[in-house]
Amino acid sequence: MDETNFNRFTNNERAQVLTEALPYIKRYSGKIVVVKYGGNAMINDTLKLQVMQDVVLLWTIGVNVVLVHGGGPDINELMNKLGKKPEFVDGLRVTDSETVDIVEMVLAGKVNKSLVNLLQKMGGRAIGISGIDGRLIEAEFKDERLGYVGNVTKIDIRPVTDLLANGYIPVISTVGCDAKGNVFNINGDTAAARLAGALGAQCMLMMTDIAGILTNKDDPSTLIKEVTLDEIYELKRTGVVTGGMIPKVDCCAQAISDGVKQVVIMDGRVPHSILMELLTDEGAGTMVKGDRYGYKS
To answer: What does each C-alpha distance from 70 to 18, 133, 221 come to in angstroms?
Structure first.
């Protein structure tokens, strides 16, 4: 909600909005919230600005926000300019030695620093790092068909916790490394889930280009607002969750299994969806919660 829209409310309506938010502010203040940011919300400049506003507002009220970002469209754009055609296998980018240089350049350079700049423009204090910095994300080769695509082997949270302790918003690009100096392209959802688990996050928000988990993928009104891990397994078994949604729910399951209290799959195209989810009664997207049965991949 921008200042112009907020000014349209009466004083009583403003007070009601703030009163509704108070219990949620208490719930998340001092806690870690990991936001996985990518997709269409990054492409649209207006939405990008609103996401940054949401992050700075949360930071201002004491929430320890960790922003993990992708940048696929920017990588594709530079590859095309260099005459290199993007290739994918099972939804993952084929990353040869030339492509991994492009990935590192775009994610750790252009995209990361532009988000840091926007957050600071909105009044926040942000520092951008990659998974290489401080060996935050260590990885190994995932599949020889994919080249330098990494499978995460270790997370060292100290670079992130040091930034949080000093009052910064960490902005993390998902490239990793190994002991031999290899650089890896890491799937953003996977990296966010592993980071959230290692940090013991209260919540992870996974911003996508759909409303959440739908019983009918073509009908947003069929949104499932809350689901447990064993229910996800059943949705996969019955074909409700298919295609590109499978790795996303698997990342949610990974995060919950690693100790994250809740994960929300949400539509990053909706203005201020972060605030809607965290600070209102209504919420946004599909909340994934743990259960006593555990999770079957």
So the answer is: 32, 17, 28
Q: Tell me how many degrees the CA angle 111-112-117 measures, rounded to the nearest 5.
A: 100
| CA dihedral sign of residues 190, 192, 193, 198 | positive
Q: How is 50-93 classified by DSSP, letter by letter?
A: HHHHHHHHHHHTT-EEEEEE--HHHHHHHHHHTT----EETTEE
| Mode of pairing for the β-strands spanning 32-37 and 150-155 | unpaired
CATH number, domain 26-80+104-131+166-174+188-289, options 3.40.1160.10, 3.40.120.10, 3.40.50.920, 3.40.50.1220: 3.40.1160.10
pTM of the model: 0.89
> Domain segments of the chain: what residues?
26-80+104-131+166-174+188-289
- The owner of tokens 């031999």 is 180
Cβ within 8 Å of residue 80, ≥6 positions away? 86
13: exposed, middle or buried (Cβ count in 10 Å: 0-12, 13-18, 19+): exposed
Q: pLDDT-based confidence at 292, cuts 50/70/90? A: very low
Q: How confident is the model at residue 26 (pLDDT cuts 50, 70, 90)?
A: confident
Look up residue 197 and give its DSSP letter.
H
Q: How do residues 94-135 score in pLDDT, each as one tens digit?
A: 999 999 999 999 999 999 999 999 999 999 999 999 999 999
pLDDT(295) > 50:
no
Average pLDDT, integer, range 191-214: 91
Please tell me the distance from the alpha carbon of residue 162 to that of residue 107, in angstroms, as a whole number.
22
